[in-house]
Amino acid sequence: MPSSDAHKLVGTTPARVTVNHLAQEAKALGTTQLADFLERTGRDISDLYRGSSSWTAILRRAELIPTPTKPTPGESDLLKRVHCFLHADDTERAEAYKRLVQDDARPYGNLGERNQTFARMLFFTLWDKAGGFPTYDQGLDSLRGQHAVRSELHQLLTYVMQASAGRTGTPLAGPHAHIPLSIHHAYNRSEILAAMGVARLGGQMPGFFAQGVLWDAANRTDALLVTLNKSDGDFSPTTRYKDYALSPTRFHWESQNSTASTSPTGQRYQKHAEQGSHVLLFVRNNKDTHTGKAQPWILLGPATYEQHTGSKPMAITWRLHHPLRDDMWTSRHPSA
Fold first, then answer.
1. pLDDT of res. 166
2. Which residues on adjacent β-strands are paired with residue 225?
3. Which of 4, 33, 59, 74 could pair covalently with 64 via S-S, beta carbons 3.0-4.6 A apart?
């Protein structure tokens, strides 16, 4: 079917996209390739991941790939997690994840330190409460039998990486050079906690972490996870802090209500530079995306204390080491 006809297909469907509509389009096009489907229909990739849908589910509904007579154990839950990789738009991370889901993926113990970190980021994104696995190797080894999941992940990561090929990021440097995160790229909670070494088997599980602040003692770093638009339904009056950009290099942030300026935490915020600790700022616009999925945070990078007013909460102005991009600045300050 010509590309123009495919676009007509999209135009005839209701605004609310269903798996049936997408399956009809895929069947009409006769393609099993995610990138080909998106190019020929003009759809946004998020359309494929509304609710509990997945590209695999769409292809099976379209009868373009067989539906197993006996479900593969764990497959359904894993396919529901594939959407968590829609933001993985930097080459290093996407390539690392793709290597980890290949047939010949190296065991966790044989990976270098940086690739072990990527492996933990992948592991906890798929199983944010560890999935019952006692070791990373067992969890990652379990993917070998998940052929549909691995195929979909590979296609999604390839598409997202190619679609954002023009975007550049700056890797963390200095005391954070060992943390494989890039400034102005997006990360979910599991990736942030795993990258910083906080999420670990036998310890903190990302699925049980709901705070917006994290003191990472090993890296001597305060990680601040900021949601700018706080709705009444998602945030109580006591947690609707006033957070916003003052300029491309200055950010206004309110501490937790319990943080006094004279408390150990308040003092650390003020004196972190002279005491040898650090601050990393992560920001997202909303708690959820337009499809109802958790929105990832964008890493703004290191920040330095500039000044504050008040106590319980403290209203702190942070100076960003890396200016906001123009598109980020216009969407993140109150007058925008």
1. 60
2. 282
3. 59
**Cis omega (within 30 of 0) for bond into 313:** yes
Q: H or E segment at 304?
A: strand 297-309
C-alpha span between 314 and 310 (Å, rounded): 5
Q: Is residue 223 within 8 Å of 280, Cβ to Cβ? A: yes
CB 332 within 8 A of CB 244: yes
Angle, in degrees to the nearest 10, between helices 19-29 and 34-41: 90
State pLDDT tens for residues 26-54.
999 999 999 999 999 999 999 999 999 99
CB 256 within 8 A of CB 213: yes
pLDDT tens digits, one per residue of 130-186? 999 999 999 999 999 999 999 999 999 999 999 887 677 799 999 999 999 999 999
Sign of the alpha-carbon torsion through 9, 15, 19, 20 = negative
Q: How many CB atoms lie within 10 A of CB 186?
A: 19
